[in-house]
Design brief:
The complex is a heterodimer. By secondary structure, chain A is of the alpha+beta class. Helix content of chain A is 50%, strand content 16%. In chain A, the strands form 2 sheets. Chain A has a 6-stranded mixed beta barrel with strand order 3-4-9-6-8-7. Chain A has a 4-stranded antiparallel β-sheet with strand order 2-10-1-11. A 6-stranded mixed β-sheet of chain B has the order 4-5-6-1-7-8, sandwiched between helices. A two-stranded antiparallel ribbon of chain B has the order 2-3. The longest helix of chain B has 17 residues. Classes of the chains: A alpha+beta, B alpha/beta.
């Protein structure tokens, strides 16, 4: 028997009992709608969650820190001492920190996170960009507004990434030589509650305390720093620097708040500017007194951008092999991913209950239909239908119910999802949240729901179809 | 049930020649329908052998048996057994559908067959819209659709009035004589059997009671 004939025969049979077929299809569609809706909710929530990180542009970022401060890098705050403390002759300060030296001797010598190391990392395959994470303490001043805070260095390459792609107002730095800055929306609101966007184009004064000595070269009056002995020469070389920065734009979202990429900061300035300030800024009197400028510039942490998010793990491993500490958001997301898998599983289990009920509906319809058509089956067998012909006819009938129910179910699920989403967003926005898609219906979910609906109908139809195929033709012909 | 084995057919031995018109006569329960069903391949004998065109039906698988029903025999029933939801043409085409005949070809053949049984203008009618005689003609057209050499008729005139019965019997006689189809007809009407059959086999309690050649 030709398959198109089987299909024609099966569809013809379904048309014979339109109401029953329609009701069964409706049952299936409710089942599929509940299943697709539940999974769609799971996917939507996951998208919302992952999307936040995506927008922050952190999936393709790895934070690398020098191996000697152990554990996660100190993401907040400026350069710590760890990155600077010379060891084993580097920087000529070996004798200055006996405690550090002792700790270091227990472990293999970690490589320095300096420009040379950055170049090595940059040369790794799939690495797009490497830049140091520089944060400098500053005093901000604009009209009556005054605040002590941290400015973050942002590389020019970050222009098209995450948080900078959708600016609340203004634009990204035009170049990295002008003294321009970006403000977080939070900060902008603190300065001008009613119209934070009007700040674009205004000038903000950024002040810091600088040491007049040049890094790399010992200050004229600097003497070998001894423990407990104030470096008075350095103390005398401090001065206050005021710079006028034009506000170029306001950033809506925190760029990678707390993790990876840029960390939290309310003021962003071009990386080059931040590095210049960093070279001179005096973080605390104590630091000034106990630290002498080192010959080689090392960094507390640097950010490595990979060309594609999927290379993150690979690059991370290679960086670790170089002896550095490396951390990416992927590490943290592994746990979240597992949680979402469990959530999806639970949601689809709940959704499956309705589908299980509707599969019983399919089975019931098929059993009834076969009972009614017993004699017809007998006739078909008498005029040459084989057992498998009969089985196929009924399986195709069940499949048609399943697939039609699946299509209707996806449409129904989508409509209901939209409606719930609409209502929920009204509530979320009223609560001060941000509207988003709680339901997501990707193509794989549509295809999966259809396939699953078909599969369920085949399973539900297989018992009745087998029963029909095994009917004794003589008894079937006698049936009324 | 299990303990009481009913021998529907017991020690029946007969041969039907190609082109013959055989009447199987007997009261109900005599085993005549069982014999016809065995030849049709709707049932299988638990013992013995049944050769149709040289093949032993008793040894066939259910798939092969369905092929036998499809190609070798055409069945005609007392109650016509047409599918009520299908038109006359669709009913005739159905057995060709199971044989895998393409749609255009079988629609053409069904229309020719209906014309040949005198129902040229009734193709799109459903069984309900046809008289008993017309329904039986559709059934005969269907039985002929895969050009079998053997026609098996189970009380073909049982539900028809005498005038229509004559027409149907004339049609069967014609098929036997003109087209050379072998016909085996089950009936309880001795007169009918005598009038049309070349040979009459009378059965009783699963055994052949008598064999009379006309």
């Amino acid at each position: 028997m030709i398959i198109s004939d089987t299909l024609r025969l099966a569809l013809g049979n379904l048309r014979q009992s339109k109401l029953r077929t329609a009701l069964t299809i409706m049952g299936v569609s409710i089942g599929i709608a509940s299943l697709a809706g539940m999974v769609s909710l799971g996917v939507g929530l996951q998208d919302q969650f992952v999307g936040r990180f995506m927008q922050a542009g952190v999936f393709d970022a790895i934070t690398v820190s020098s191996g000697n401060n152990g554990g996660l890098p100190a993401l907040l705050g400026g350069r710590g001492r760890g990155g600077r403390a010379g060891r084993g002759g580097r920087g000529g300060r070996a004798g200055n920190a006996p405690a550090d030296g002792a700790a270091a001797s227990a472990r293999p010598e970690p490589p320095a996170l300096d420009d040379a190391a950055m170049a090595t990392i940059k040369a790794l395959p799939n690495v797009k960009d490497v830049f140091p994470n520089i944060r400098v303490p500053l005093q901000m001043h604009l009209g009556e507004f005054e605040e002590l805070g941290t400015a973050m260095g942002v590389p020019m390459s970050a222009k098209d990434e995450g948080a900078f792609r959708t600016m609340s107002a203004g634009a990204f730095f035009a170049n990295d030589t002008d003294e321009t800055c970006l403000l977080s929306l939070d900060m902008a609101k603190r300065i001008n509650e009613t119209d934070p966007k009007s700040l674009v184009g205004q000038t903000m004064t950024l002040s810091y305390t600088a040491s007049t000595s040049t890094p790399g070269a010992p200050a004229p009056m600097a003497m070998p720093a001894m423990p407990g002995m104030p470096n008075l020469g350095a103390l005398l070389q401090m001065k206050r620097v005021d710079r006028a920065y034009r506000i170029a734009g306001v950033v809506k979202r925190e760029p990678g708040a707390g993790l990876g990429g840029f960390g939290f900061a309310n003021v962003m300035i071009p990386l080059k500017r931040a590095m210049e300030i960093d070279a001179h800024v005096v973080r605390s009197t104590q630091a000034l007194l106990t630290e002498a400028p080192t010959k080689t510039k090392t960094y507390q942490s640097v950010t490595v951008k990979v060309t594609k998010a999927q290379f993150t793990e690979d690059v991370e491993d290679k960086i670790k092999a170089l002896g550095f500490q490396a951390f990416s958001i992927n590490d943290a997301l592994q746990g979240a991913k597992r949680a979402f898998i469990i959530l999806d599983l639970v949601l689809s289990l709940i959704g499956s209950i309705a589908l299980a009920v509707s599969s019983l509906g399919i089975m019931n319809t098929m059993v009834m239909s076969i009972l009614e058509r017993t004699r017809e089956i007998g006739v078909m067998k008498a005029i040459g239908a084989s057992d498998s012909d009969i089985r196929r006819i009924f399986l195709v009938e069940a499949s048609a119910i399943g697939v039609l129910g699946g299509v209707a179910g996806i449409v129904l699920g989508w409509v209901v999802g939209r409606a719930i989403n609409f209502g929920a967003n009204i509530y979320i926005v009223r609560q001060g949240g941000e509207a988003g898609n709680l339901f997501s219906l990707p193509w794989w979910l549509i295809a999966g729901a259809l396939a699953f609906s078909w599969l369920v109908s085949l399973v539900a139809g297989s018992y009745p179809a087998n029963r029909a195929a095994k009917l004794n033709p003589i008894q079937a012909l006698r049936h009324d | 049930m299990g303990a009481n084995i009913v021998r529907a057919l017991d020690d029946v031995s007969l041969t039907v020649a190609e082109g013959e018109f055989v009447g199987l006569l007997g009261t109900s329960g005599s085993g005549k329908s069982t014999l016809l069903n065995l030849i049709a391949g709707l049932d299988q004998a638990t013992a013995g052998e049944l050769l149709v065109f040289g093949d032993d039906l008793a040894k066939m698988s259910s798939e092969t048996l369905s092929k036998h029903r499809q190609k070798n025999v055409g069945m005609i029933f007392q109650s016509f057994n047409l599918i009520s939801t299908m038109t006359a043409a669709e009913n005739v085409a159905l057995s060709m559908m199971f044989a895998g005949v393409p749609r255009a070809e079988r629609e053409c053949a069904a229309s020719d067959l209906l014309a040949s049984v005198g129902l040229g203008g009734r193709q799109t009618h459903r069984p309900k819209e046809l008289s008993g005689g017309e329904q039986q003609r559709v059934a005969i057209a269907r039985a002929l659709s895969n050009t079998p050499r053997l026609l098996l008729a189970d009380e073909p005139t049982g539900n028809l009035d005498s005038r229509t019965s004559k027409e149907i019997m004339a049609l069967l006689k014609d098929l036997n004589e003109r087209d050379g189809k072998t016909v085996i007809m089950v009936t309880h009407d001795a007169d009918l059997a005598k009038r049309y059959a070349h040979r009459i086999i009378t059965m009783l309690d699963g055994k052949v009671l008598s064999e009379v050649t006309a």
